[in-house]
Amino acid sequence: MARAHSPIDRFYSVIPAGGIGSRLWPLSRADAPKFLHDLTGSGQTLLRDTWDRLAPLSGEQRIMVVTGRAHRAAVEKQLPALADPNIVLESEPRDSTAAIGLAAAILERREPGVIIGSFAADHVIKNQRLFASAVREAVASANAGYITTIGIRPTEPAVGFGYIHTGAEIAIDGAPSAISVTKFVEKPDLATAEGYVSSGAYLWNAGMFIARADRLLEEIGRSEPELLAGLLELAAAWDDPATRGPAVDRIWPELKKIAIDYAVAEPAAAEGNLSVIPGYFDWDDVGDFASLAKLNSGGRKSDLAILGENARVLSDASSGIVISQSGRVISLIGVKDIVVVDTPDALLVTTSEHAQRVKAVVDALKLTGSTDVL
After folding, report:
1. Over 80: is that where the pLDDT of 302 sits?
2. DSSP 225-286
3. What's residue 2's pLDDT?
4. From CA 368, how far away is CA 374, in angstroms rounded?
5. What DSSP assignment string belongs to 167-200?
6. Helix 213-223 vs helix 225-238: angle between axes, to the nearest 10 degrees?
7. FRET partner for 132 with CA separation of 20 to 30 A, picked from 142, 262, 280, 315?
């Protein structure tokens, strides 16, 4: 087995970098999605943070990024060490099964028996040592034939995350923490989430999946055979520039849009083929402005988090978050849990309680044809 500080044998990291993060509008836009922003004050984008987290585990030459054609230049600027064959461009979004499945199909053709790990480009993770330990156990579980995920030990009854219901321990060499998964559950209401946390039998679903590429493709084929056929045909044409473009134009738009949770994780759990490694590191998917405020105020609700270069904010007895990109003065007096996002062409004002509803604004703008601010 590789030493703890060495890249993991046969392991390839995959970073799906898609979606616009509509609950973070107007900060996150189609041409500047969430993963291309510094949301933590680290001085780097979330994408770069993800790369730096994965490079020690797989090696820089064994990281594949799946992103939209429109983001190629920005991704390559952020990741100068990204190998050209390892950037996979989607002509249009087709959800996570297509993105991760295509990466698996391409890598399995290049390197039969490869183990892949999919990690979103826009999550925040702290404590590299604990993260690396969980990934190494997940790879051992994947090597044993399981579709494996990393679930986060909940620290509160969060309603913004899905949950994983755990079962019995599994005896896997190199993965002493492995537990079976009985089912995935959608984002709960508060009372249900409180029950989940108090039971001790649930983990947050962080959307991390680790598997042998051939096993992942096998699971896709069981639930979505037509989707698998399209992915395999694309992969067969991928590494020849002469055949790739025509194949993408013909096949990609016809691929079914379905999340990997539904196409792979839930069916694998039902068959007893899914394991989970509990993660004890700090994790957040920064799914809305409430989580962003919490992330940047150290969890103290009495504080006001301020993001943006040259932000000019005056505050008196106020809390929440202000994100300023316009340069104008923003003054807050006696408002609690406020969310203010001020950009040159759009202004959002809401509260942490209603942060999940920002997506509805984006949907409304689409319906009214106001796509110039999306």
Report:
1. no
2. HHHHHHHHHHHHHHT-HHHHHHHHHHHGGGS----HIIIIIHHHHHTT-EEEEEE-SEEE--
3. 46
4. 12
5. EEE---TT-TT-EEEEEEEPPP-HHHHHHHHHHT
6. 140
7. 262
For residues 209-220, one letter each, b for 16 or more C-beta atoms within 10 angstroms of the residue's C-beta and e for the rest, the string is bbbbbbbbbbbb
List the structure tokens of 9: 């044998």
How many whole angstroms separate alpha carbon 63 and alpha carbon 107? Answer: 11
Is residue 150's pLDDT more than 90?
A: yes
**Which tokens sit at 79?**
């990741």
Is the CB of residue 23 less than 8 Å from the CB of residue 288? yes
Torsion sign, CA atoms 166, 168, 170, 175 = positive
On whether the CB atoms of residues 330 and 312 are closer than 8 A, the answer is yes
Q: Cβ(102)–Cβ(52) under 8 Å?
A: no
CA 88 to chain CA centroid, nearest Å? 17
N- to C-terminal Cα distance for the chain?
A: 48
Q: Which residue has the tokens 């962080």?
A: 206
From the list 122, 150, 174, the residue with the least C-alpha distance to 4 is 174
Distance CA 119, CA 99 (A): 12
- 124 touches 286 (CB < 8 A): yes
- The full 3-state SS of 193-229, as one line of letters, equals HHHHHHHCCEEEEEEEEEEEHHHHHHHHHHHCHHHHH
Confidence of residue 198 (pLDDT cuts 50, 70, 90): very high
Q: Residue 339: CB partners within 8 Å, gap ≥ 6?
A: 289, 290, 293, 320, 321, 348, 349, 350, 351, 352, 355
Measure the CA–CA gap between 66 and 50, rounded to whole angstroms.
13
Please compute the mean of the pLDDT values over residues 263-290 and round it to a whole number: 93
